[in-house]
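tool_call: predict_structure(chain=1)
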Amino acid sequence: MQVAYPAWNDDIYVWRRILPKSVPKLDDRNISGYLVINFMHNWNGEHLPLISTVTIRLLSFVLHLISTHAF
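tool_result:
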């Protein structure tokens, strides 16, 4: 940041982090790329739609089927 703004003198590692509780935990990192693209597609400039753990599990299952050619 100091390259872009030389007067920058803040340590972001000491900032207080706020972790939202409504964000589901991802156990499968392979699905994260899909979720990023999905969120980018669904972003309307103000908010993102909520995604549930059921949706993530269903997507994980479908991606597993596609990647293993088991259909």
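agent: Residues 20 and 50 are 12 Å apart (CA to CA). Proceeding to next step.
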